Structures
1.
Amino acid sequence: MDKEQRKKMVAHCLVDLGETVASWSAKNGLHQKIVTDLIDGKLKGTRGVSLATKRKMEETFGNLFDENETKQRNP
């Protein structure tokens, strides 16, 4: 999924939830900057906080990212 598709999908889901990126991030204990960078494709989210954020986003919004990117390198 490319950046524009990801943005549209997240936007539609947030409208359905009655949330914004900022409110959804805060409600889920996530950093808004990391969430927006993942949506924009600026972070790969393969480790640490960005990986945990990516997984939480996919729980809420569905499969937003390439399946191989979500798995840890050394599980």
Note: The chain has a mean pLDDT of 86.
2.
Amino acid sequence: MEHRGAGTSERGEDVMAVTEQQVMEAIKPIEDPELHLGIVDLGLIYGAEINPQPEGDDVKLTMTFTSPFCPYGPQLKAMVQRNLASLPGVKNAAVNIVFTPPWDPRTMASEDCKIALGIGGWEEEEGQGPGGDIESQR
């Protein structure tokens, strides 16, 4: 992985530019408190914008919650911001919360999360489940 110099820190140390991979690794351990699944794997992260600056990078992360009324929203936002701010080379960390597009685990979550949520492993069609056609089992 190639790093480009981003400048010098306030302490006079050389600072390397932060990468999107580092951003995702920093927030990967954060779990949704209700679902107990990682916010990255759930697909709650919509993007990261990294703007290199001479004194350290500005990182802006765009994310959503599982619901606009998520009771843990402020807590999740604070955890993400804290983890981003702790990355070496980050001077400013911002978290932007959006609800468009709305979170849909069927299209946004990882396969492991879909299975954990009970929506993976089979084609979901009306009358279909993991055992096949429901009517034929009666």
Note: Residues 1-6, 131-138 have pLDDT under 50 and may be disordered.
3.
Amino acid sequence: MFSIAPWINEYASCAMRVLLAFSLFINLTSVAPCQTVTLRLDSASSQIRMGEPLNLDCWVDNPQAAVLAGYQAFFSFSADSFELLAAPSPLFGSVLTDVWAFNCPPPFGSGWASCPEAGDGIAEEGVFAIGAALSSGSYSSAATAHLFRTTFEAGQALGSAPSPFLLDDPALAGCIGNAISMVADSSANPLTVVLESTEVVVTPNLEVSGSFYPGGALAFEVRDDPGLPWHLFASLQIDAADYGAMGVLYVDIGHPSFRFLGQGVLDGTGVATQAVVIPALAGLSGQTAYCQAATGLGAPVASRRLTNLTAFVIQ
């Protein structure tokens, strides 16, 4: 097993495609008739919370038992929601691993000089992998086979919308070039490939419900690991101070309206609730309240996190 990331430059995707073609002698001008496989991304969970790991697996479904000899796969993920924890890698039992190569964002790969947006740590990022068999004994005709795994860590929740892991993301395909997903059979013919992407929700750690008017009662719910201390605060002014691994602090702690709303320790289920009453001041009507919580302050650094921002307009 090896990584070609250290020497891949702006011709990265082309070089990897040549490597696969050389290994399989693929005839890219024809497609094997009536042979269809599915490249599929899958994770064990569709919902996780900030700081939790996510194992994303790439599978090939081969219901017609075509004899598979190699593949290449490209997918994107949101760096705003997930951090790459390890380079993509086959597992014990993965198929088509005689030849294995990958590229991904730093520090595990080099990224793409011709497509810096695919590896700059902002918005959509790219992961590319190649696997091939060099002998008939390593071919695969299994109905379902594992190709490789990529491990991520969930970042700060940005809302309730799911974050996609998208095969052949059109937003990046134009600048990546030929890094398209494909599967080849033992005769070096690319098969018809159906792509199945997936998406995962980073569940908010802070939610609020209640009556959003002066004098109204609110109920905040904070979630994280059991036993962690928590602090809840709010301001009428938004901010965006980056605290690195802890996340982004969206509440302006220097604004005159800044207030601590409560603190405590998360219970055995990792949940805490805090009742808050909006001050009965008419001048608050029409103002937007920005609320956030910090968990793990005083705990080991790895447990210190800022929740998602929760905002509402006071009616």
Note: Residues 1-25 have pLDDT under 50 and may be disordered.
4.
Amino acid sequence: MHTQIINDDTFTASVSGVLGTLGSVGLVAKSMARSTDLVHQSQHGLQVWCISPWHGLVSASVHGTVYRSGASVHITVYRSDASVHSKVYRSGASVHSTVYRSGASVHSTVYRSGASVHGTVYRSGASVLARSTGLVHQSMARSTGLVHQSMARSTGLVHLAIVRSTDLMLHSTARSTGVVHQWSASSVDQSQSVM
């Protein structure tokens, strides 16, 4: 098991060194793991790095945990004050990822089991479907290069769930090869079709 707790100064320095550029409004969060050869992206050897995008703050303590057991890779990153939790783990052929924020009641879940990909996005305080303001839900399933936009696609290889709350956009992408999971958040405020 490899665990590292990063303080404010070290965390900020590591972010600047690894990521290079930070968003002016929101920080970009990425969590990457490969089935073979875990990616090292920290001077301290932390195999996975993740930046909390909420509020664009890094003042609170950030904890990163990564450990490997056989063919399974487990990654956990969380930030205490903002109640932001991000988890991604891989066991065999299945990929599971979960991110949630308790304050805004925004939940996003993407998981893959076998050949099917399932995505669920919901917000407790508002309706996801037929909501034109404040929240946008978009689902995309891609199979062998062909992009399909649908509300209920379960046979694709890639699932993308997008939730926008106020000015933050949360992307959750699960890929079948290479990068297992990637999170990003930005302040891009562009129109999205409600599905």
Note: The CA atoms of residues 86 and 99 lie 4 Å apart.
